[in-house]
Design a protein that fits this description.
By secondary structure, the protein is mainly α. Helices cover about 75% and strands about 0% of the residues. It contains five helices and no strands. It has helices at about 5-20, 30-50, 55-75, 85-95, 100-135. Helix 1 runs parallel beside helix 3, helix 1 runs antiparallel to helix 5 (about 100-135) and helix 2 packs across helix 3 (about 55-75). The mean pLDDT is about 90.
Length: about 140
Amino acid sequence: MQTLTAGRVMFVYQLFRQVTVGLGLQLGGHPSFIRPIIAPMTEAAAAREGLRGTVWMDRIRGMSASAENYGNFFGQLLFPAAGGLLLIKGVLENAGYKVDLLVMAQYAIPSAIAASTIALVRFLLLDRAIRAEGKNKGGERA
């Protein structure tokens, strides 16, 4: 637990959401996980690095919410019976194109991987900024 950073907590949660949504499980989102669980964990990890202040805590809460958005948005089309895929299939079939839901879900895999990679970079950059700010003046910015 001592090695967990704010960015690592966010990334693990983002992967968790992407996998669960990809399996078709809707578990709540912002009100159920981010506000009561993930945001306080990331804030505590940042405080352990010596970071304090309203501006930084707001930034960390926002990044925690982005973990939910990355996981949910880019994971939902991995599930073949997702509403978004069914809508796209219906529109394409009405236009005369024959499409397969499994093939469409396979095409969502590269974007889900890219989103996870981009999220990981953003979270690692946040961790780096937290460490730098924590060492600089104890992180006591407003």
